[in-house]
Amino acid sequence: MSLLDAIKTQSQITDSVIVSFSMGKDSIVTLDLCMRYFKHVGAFFMYLVPGLEFQENTLKKYEKYYGIEILRVPHFENSNFYRYGSFRDPDFTVPLVKINDIYAYVRKQTGVEWIAGGEKIADSIVRLSMLKHSGSVDVKRRRFYPVMYWHDKEIKEYIKYHRLLYPEFNRKLGFSFHSLAGKELAAIKDIYPKDYQRILKFFPEAQAGVLQYEMNKKSGEK
Ligand SMILES: Nc1ncnc2c1ncn2[C@@H]1O[C@H](COP(=O)(O)OS(=O)(=O)O)[C@@H](OP(=O)(O)O)[C@H]1O
After folding, report:
1. Which end of the chain has fewer CB atoms at under 10 Å, N or C?
2. Ligand 1 atom closest to Cα of 19?
3. What are phi and psi of 146, to 5 degrees?
4. Residue nearest to atom 10 of ligand 1 (CA)
5. Which domains are delineated in the chain?
6. pTM for this one?
7. Residue 151: predicted pLDDT
């Protein structure tokens, strides 16, 4: 069995695909594979905060490199944060959004049915059971999992071998930004201060976690 079997099978089903693109290493490989095996490729990125420069600059680089458009859509978890007031005041007029609502939206925008993502069996036990159940082609959910059988080692080797663009912000921050935890935000405050101020405009109370993290760090250093 070859690691390319999944994508080869998927490309027999359709010539058009949308990639769920987080700028994490698995979806970087997924996007590159899809570019090689499908005729029409689109992508979407779910943001926690719209228009962060460090993310936007990188998304633009991928768009230019592959000649594709990457849709920016709010992360479905935002609806929980906004409705119930996580890191901000609650607003019960905000409807709850699920991942399937995001899929429905991007399908409507692009006219493409199948969505490929970077989920892998090696990620966790939950992933293993989900992917073993669906296989690399989930007909019911119209999802493809091109790298489901890959391990981190192979993902890293592919990125290196094909000299794929790996976001500078991942290297600088040491993580790919997807939470409002104090530790992560403290790093953003240091390295991308303008973006940090923008995050606080949307989630003002996230500052508390950063201050707590900074205080703990200081007292630990003494
Ligand atoms: N923000 C965002 N925007 C678009 N697509 C996203 C996003 N977050 C996750 N994903 C897609 O899901 C793949 C697996 O991500 P994760 O392992 O982090 O798990 S999770 O789905 O977010 O729970 C993930 O692959 P990788 O992030 O490369 O592992 C993507 O294909």
Report:
1. C
2. 31
3. -65, -30
4. 22
5. 5-178 (3.40.50.620), 179-222 (no CATH)
6. 0.95
7. 97
